[in-house]
Amino acid sequence: MVANIYFGSQETSRQELTQRLSPYSGEVVSMAAVCNADDAKKALLIAKEASKETKKSTIAQRCSWLLDVAQKLRETKEDMAKIITDEVGKPIAFSRVEVERCIETVTLCAETMRTMHGETINTDAMSSGKKTTAFFLRESAGVVVAITPFNFPLNLVAHKLAPALVAGNAVVLKPTPEAPLSAYKFAKLFIESKYALKDALSVVYGDAEVGGALVSSDIPRVISFTGSVPVGNIIAKSAGIKKVSLELGGNAATYIDESADLDLAASRCAIGAFVNSGQVCISLQRIYVNAKIYDAFAQKMAQQTKKLVVGSPYDDDTFMGPLIDDEACKRAMGWVESAIEEGATAMLTPRVDGRLFYPCVMTDVRDDMAIVCEEVFAPIVSLVKVESFDDALPRINNSPYGLQFSIFTNDLSLTKRAIYELDAGGVVINDMPTLRFDIQPYGGVKLSGVGREGPRFAIEEMSEIKSVVIC
């Protein structure tokens, strides 16, 4: 139940602990060792020394390491799912899905690393060149700092640890304070594996003090962060000359065309807006609906939303569990009340029961309302009436965020336009913008961040190209 520090492969306990309370029951579900800036610096020094050896390790050993972790995770799948549900209130069915995705992510990183390679270069292709043997290869970057959020406390850790370690780096992980035990149990699988590289992974806990010490240090070569825009901005300013990968906020939108299958669109939009209680960077927040089918779609959306089961995250049938904390509930209700005061209408009566915030579909929403301008990170979706895709396009793009957008249409010309004209890191056709496959490149433009996750793309972010010429 206690998440201890890992200084490299050495597990260290502390008398001073922080408690993690269940967002659903309020009971203590885990505890974590209290860390400070000195702990962060110690972990970095260990990682710096370890990186000298991890760089020399073989791809075969590192791939075997990851596959061993994936197998051990399969054997503890139900226990890991329970811990996720305990710490962040995710419905148990979705916690199981997260564990499965984590297994896939780790496995994909191992499989991808086996096929990563450099290329030969024709240096005599230029008139100023000459015939040589020239090529480039990939090497580990050195030390990677990984900082992860609460909403996917296992799989988003995997998206940093697995590519970083399989690329031959040493890593210092600072997981979210909301889910220390989830990260600890996962890291333990790496550290105790028979294929583990000594001191290649450290785990420390904390907020700004620990994070600041990790990010501002000269030791890391890569900072990989998933979280809020304000914190991402601080990291970007304090990191210095490093490779910085930032997966930040989003304000996902979709357009429902008059040619779309409305039943499909409503069903998928309800899932995209309310899965994980809207606590997803690519949670569907804005739905721009063609005026010709606006009323019909709004009714179907409300009907689909009413079907969603809200309740105990330990029940297999529950679709939505609690928000992460009281502040999140207060903030979400503030969004709804503000929108209603500005003239919007709630199709379903806004309702809060403890930290259970029931899904809310807002209509009569205007573009100037805060509820569509900012990231709400809650189970609230807004329907905006538009005349056409030409009307919707600039309004969708007129956001400081650009993570993922989508369109529902059976018009091929609109499909082509959406692919090239929507200003986002990802575009989805005929499904929710919340759709993500872990094998794909994932990341955004504008304030949604820089860099890409996904096995191949994260390995590229966490490695360096070395150019070689033999004359």
Spatial strand order of the main sheet: 15-18-19-14-13-21-22
Biggest sheet layout: 7 strands, mixed
Count of separate DSSP helical elements: 15
Mean model confidence by pLDDT = 97
Tell me which CATH architecture of the largest domain applies here: 3-Layer(aba) Sandwich
Looking at CATH, the homologous superfamily of the largest domain is Aldehyde Dehydrogenase, Chain A, domain 1
CATH class type of the largest domain: Alpha Beta
- Termini separation comes to 59 Å
Amount of helix: 25-40%
User: What overall geometry do the principal axes of the alpha carbons give?
Assistant: globular
Output the CATH topology of the largest domain. Aldehyde Dehydrogenase, Chain A, domain 1
Low-confidence stretches: none
- What gyration radius follows from the Cα positions, in whole Å? 23 Å
Number of DSSP E strands: 25
Which descriptors apply to this entry?
single chain, 471 residues, alpha/beta, Aldehyde Dehydrogenase, Chain A, domain 1, Aldehyde Dehydrogenase, Chain A, domain 2, 7-stranded mixed β-sheet, 6-stranded mixed β-sheet, 15 helices, 39% helix, globular
In brief, what are we looking at here?
Helices cover 39% and strands 22% of the residues. The chain is α/β, with parallel strands linked by helices and 471 residues long.
Description:
- The model has no long low-confidence stretch (mean pLDDT 97).
- This protein is α/β, with parallel strands linked by helices and 471 residues long.
- Strand 2 (5-7) and strand 3 (10-12) form a beta hairpin.
- The longest helix is centred in the N-terminal third of the chain and has 24 residues, at 92-115.
- The protein has 2 domains: 2-248 and 448-470, Aldehyde Dehydrogenase, Chain A, domain 1; 252-437, Aldehyde Dehydrogenase, Chain A, domain 2 (3-Layer(aba) Sandwich).
- The chain starts with a strand and ends with a strand.
- It has helices spanning 37-54, 59-75, 77-88, 92-115, 155-166, 180-191, 208-216, 229-238, 262-274, 294-306, 326-341, 370-373, 389-397, 412-421, 455-461, and strands at 2-3, 5-7, 10-12, 17-21, 28-33, 119-121, 133-140, 143-147, 170-174, 201-203, 222-226, 243-247, 252-256, 284-290, 345-346, 352-353, 356-357, 360-363, 380-386, 401-402, 404-408, 426-429, 445-446, 449-450, 463-470.
- Helix 1 (37-54) packs across helix 7 (208-216).
- The protein has a 7-stranded mixed beta sheet with strand order 15-18-19-14-13-21-22, sandwiched between helices. A 6-stranded mixed beta sheet has the order 10-9-8-11-12-24, sandwiched between helices. Strands 1-5-4 form a 3-stranded mixed beta sheet.
